[in-house]
Amino acid sequence: MHRNEKPLFETALLTGGNGNLGQLVADRLLDSGVRVVKFDVPPMEPESTRDDEVVVVGDIRDLEQLEAVILEHRPWYRVSLCVIVVGQFGG
């Protein structure tokens, strides 16, 4: 996509967005002009964020919180990059 082209969608929600793959996907979307909402567990929050990037700390298993994030940010697409590690966070 060229810089002067409008992205196909405005906002994407990346669950597990703060991991290695999540950051690569987020960077590509941000470079394309897409606003990115990254939803991930602590302590995965990045030390800094880019313009049009929002980080929400939470657990994908908390459906009420996830629904609130979706209602607040209204993503057009969701990319699931999260994994649950056995024994992590009581899982």
Describe this structure in words.
- This protein is globular.
- The mean pLDDT is 84.
- The protein is an alpha/beta fold and 91 residues long.
- The longest helix is centred in the N-terminal third of the chain and has 12 residues.
- The protein has a single domain, classed as NAD(P)-binding Rossmann-like Domain (Rossmann fold, 3-Layer(aba) Sandwich).
- The chain has a four-stranded parallel β-sheet with strand order 3-2-1-4, with helices on both faces.
Task: Name some characteristics of this structure.
91 residues; alpha/beta; Rossmann fold; 2 helices; globular
* Strands in their spatial order, largest beta sheet: 3-2-1-4
Q: What is the CATH homologous superfamily assignment?
A: NAD(P)-binding Rossmann-like Domain
Number of strands: 4
DSSP summary: helix tally: 2
What structural class do you assign from the helix and strand content?
A: alpha/beta
Major sheet: size, sense and barrel closure?
4 strands, parallel
The appropriate CATH architecture is 3-Layer(aba) Sandwich
CATH topology: Rossmann fold
Number of domain modules:
1
Morphology call? globular
Q: How much beta, percentage-wise?
A: 15-25%
CATH class: Alpha Beta
Distance between the termini: 40 Å
Order of helices and strands: EHEEHE
Radius of gyration: 13 Å
The level of helicity is 25-40%
Q: Give the uncertain stretches in residue-range form.
A: none
Mean pLDDT: 84
Spell out the blueprint of helices and strands.
Elements: E1 11-15, H1 20-31, E2 35-40, E3 53-57, H2 63-73, E4 77-80
Parallel strand pairs: 1-2, 1-4, 2-3
